[in-house]
Design brief:
By secondary structure, the chain is mainly β. Helix content is 2%, strand content 34%. The chain is built from one helix and 13 strands; from the N terminus they run E-E-H-E-E-E-E-E-E-E-E-E-E-E. The longest helix is centred in the middle third of the chain and has 5 residues.
Length: 263
C-alpha cells in the first residue's frame, strides 16, 4: 500500500544547528528540497604567534608521607593501663676465685667402667628353722615303718610340743622314742606322749629341763614307729606346732610331711 508523501516546504524543513558562536539553519530533509544549499563555512582556529613558546607543564608532587604513621586507639574507661616491658635480669659477675668446670676430651671418650661380677652366696631361709619327716616312701602290708621327726637349722629350741597325724585305717601306732636333740651337752629333758584313739593323732610333749637354754642346729627330736595293715597311700605330718625358745618366744617353723604308699 503506497500512501501520499507530504514533503514540507523549504522554509519549514530547516532546523537550527551549529555552535553557540555560529548559529546557522539547514534543511532537515535535504533529499526532498529543491533549493541548493550553500556550503557551510569551515571554522579556522587562529594560529598562535611564533614568538610565544608554550612552557612545558610543571608537575608539582605532594609532600612525602612519613612511613611512621601513629595509630591512636581510643581507650575506654575499662581498658587497663599499658604494662611496661620487663627488664632483663642483671648478669652477676663471677665471684673471685670461681673456676668454671672444664670437661676434658678424654673423659668424654673414655670407655665404660668394667662390670665386676660378685660371687654368688646362699640366702639363709627366713624364720627359725624347719621340721622334716623322714622314712621310706613304699612299704608292704605288715611292714614296720619308723618315721623320724627331725629339725633343721633350728634357732634356740627349748620346747617342742606338737601333734603327729596319720591314717589309722592303714597304720597302727606301735611306739614313740625320744631323740637326742634337746639332751645335748648333758641337759635334762621332759618327754611325754598321749595317743588319741579313733582320730589318728599322737600328742607329744618335749622340752628341756631346769637350767636349759635352748639348742640350735640340726638333729632328731623323736621317732614314731607304725605297722602297715592295709594297702593304700597316706601321709604322716605334724601340726599345731608350739615350738618356743628359752625366753618363751614362739619360733617360726616350717614343717614338711611324708607320703608313704602301702602295697
Amino acid at each position: 500500500i503506497v500512501q501520499n508523501i507530504v514533503v514540507p516546504a523549504a522554509g519549514i524543513g530547516t532546523l537550527w544547528s551549529g555552535g553557540e558562536d555560529d548559529l546557522k539553519a539547514g534543511p532537515v530533509f535535504g533529499a526532498y528540497t529543491s533549493y541548493e544549499e550553500e556550503p557551510l563555512p569551515i571554522p579556522v582556529r587562529p594560529a598562535k604567534e611564533t614568538s610565544e613558546v608554550e612552557a612545558a607543564p610543571v608537575l608539582i608532587l605532594p609532600p612525602p608521607i612519613s612511613k611512621e604513621v601513629p595509630v591512636i586507639i581510643p581507650q575506654s574507661e575499662e581498658t587497663p593501663a599499658a604494662v611496661p616491658p620487663l627488664e632483663p635480669a642483671p648478669v652477676l659477675p663471677e665471684a673471685a676465685g670461681t673456676i668454671s668446670p672444664v670437661v676434658s676430651e678424654e673423659a668424654i671418650t673414655a670407655p665404660p667402667a668394667e662390670l665386676i661380677q660378685l660371687p654368688s652366696f646362699e640366702i639363709p631361709p627366713a624364720g627359725d628353722g624347719s621340721l622334716l619327716l623322714f622314712g621310706p616312701s613304699q612299704i608292704s602290708v605288715g611292714d614296720v615303718i619308723n618315721v623320724a621327726i627331725s629339725g633343721q637349722e633350728l634357732n634356740g629350741l627349748f620346747s617342742a610340743p606338737l601333734f603327729v597325724t596319720y591314717d589309722q585305717n592303714l597304720f597302727d601306732l606301735l611306739s614313740v622314742a625320744e631323740g637326742d636333740f634337746l639332751s645335748r651337752e648333758g641337759k635334762t629333758t621332759v618327754f611325754s606322749t598321749n595317743p588319741i584313739p579313733g582320730k589318728g593323732e599322737l600328742m607329744i610333749g618335749y622340752k628341756q629341763g631346769v637350767g636349759g637354754s635352748g639348742v640350735s642346729g640340726d638333729g632328731t627330736l623323736f621317732t614314731v614307729t607304725f605297722r602297715a595293715k592295709a594297702p593304700g597311700t597316706a601321709a604322716f605330718s605334724v601340726d599345731r606346732l608350739n615350738l618356743r625358745n628359752a625366753a618363751g618366744q614362739r619360733l617360726k617353723i616350717v614343717a614338711t610331711p611324708l607320703a608313704v604308699e602301702v602295697k
